[in-house]
Write a structure and sequence with these properties.
Structural class: alpha+beta
Largest sheet: 8 strands, mixed
Strand content: 25-35%
Helix content: 25-40%
Number of helices: 7
Distance between the termini: 27 Å
Bound molecules: D-MYO-inositol-1-phosphate
Length: 270
């Protein structure tokens, strides 16, 4: 696994430098939806990562947020979000990341999440532990949700969708110590992995937002599931990630509300 990790880190750092060099400068912005934007830097970052990885591993498949991807189900596929937290980046708000995962038969086996503004590199390999800048990381030890710091995010469809995360947000506001909405799900999950957050939930994330970071969470001793506690995959629409100890408490709160009606999307555009 080491050769894949090494190249994923090299690609993440290269693209991190590119992204950092464009902070504070004018960006070309296009809209994919009413509030879902993409900058020229997202596209350049994805091209750079794709070229790097496919040059090293020409037989591998690739799925990227901006360029789409190839059919799942084949042995090796890279899943990439070139800037997770594009809205933050577009506003020069320094909380965004590059997310690169390698999946084998739909299971993440390498995960790299790089925060270029703080030079923080989170990574994990299956069975090999989770690290932040080469130091092993573990989830927090908080046992009582009332003392926990939680994080969430809101899908771009929020303004049009009847079912949204707002009700859950209010429920946790009333029951946890505090909540943050930071704007990069990959980084939010890595913050659960290293104990800065005790729990994270969201509805409507895409495989490129989560594929790398869920491996970091698992390898750091955290727990992942759908809201009802059942098995989660990065192709699912709802995610609950915690330090393990507050998982059932959070699941109970999330199950108070009716299930959101989000249609299943299959991420195999070609
Ligand atoms: C977004 C971020 C955000 C989350 C959104 C995602 P993007 O990803 O991860 O935190 O709340 O649901 O779409 O579009 O910036 O790559």
């Amino acid at each position: 696994m080491d050769k894949y990790l090494k190249e994923a880190i090299a690609a993440a750092k290269k693209s991190g430098s590119l992204i950092r060099s464009r902070v504070g400068k004018t960006k070309t912005i296009n809209y994919k939806g009413a509030i879902d934007l993409v900058t020229d830097v997202d596209k350049a970052s994805e091209r750079l990562i794709k070229d790097h990885l496919l040059k090293k591993f020409p037989q591998h498949l690739f799925l990227g947020e901006e360029s789409g991807g190839q059919k799942e189900g084949c042995a090796y596929r890279w899943i990439v979000d070139p800037i997770d937290g594009t809205t933050n980046f577009a506003h020069d708000f320094p909380y965004f990341s590059v997310s690169i995962a390698l999946e084998i038969n739909c299971q993440p086996v390498v995960g790299v999440v790089y925060d270029p503004m703080h030079d923080e590199l989170f990574y994990a390999t299956k069975g090999g532990g989770a690290f932040l800048n080469e130091k092993k990381i573990r989830v927090s030890k908080i046992k009582d949700m009332k003392k926990s710091l939680l994080c969430t995010g809101f899908a771009y469809e929020i303004k049009g969708a009847r079912d949204s995360n707002v009700e859950h947000f209010v429920d946790f506001l009333m029951t946890a110590q505090a909540i943050r909405r930071m704007g990069s799900a990959a980084l939010d999950l890595c913050y659960v992995a290293c104990g800065r957050f005790d729990g994270f939930w969201e509805i409507g994330l895409k495989p490129w937002d989560t594929a790398a970071a869920i491996l970091v969470v698992t390898e750091a001793g955290g727990k992942l599931s759908k809201f009802n506690g059942s098995k989660y995959s990065h192709y699912d629409q709802e995610i609950l990630a915690t330090n393990g100890s507050i998982h059932t408490q959070m699941s109970r709160i999330l199950m108070r509300r009716p299930k959101p009606k989000i249609c299943k999307i299959i991420w195999n555009s070609t």
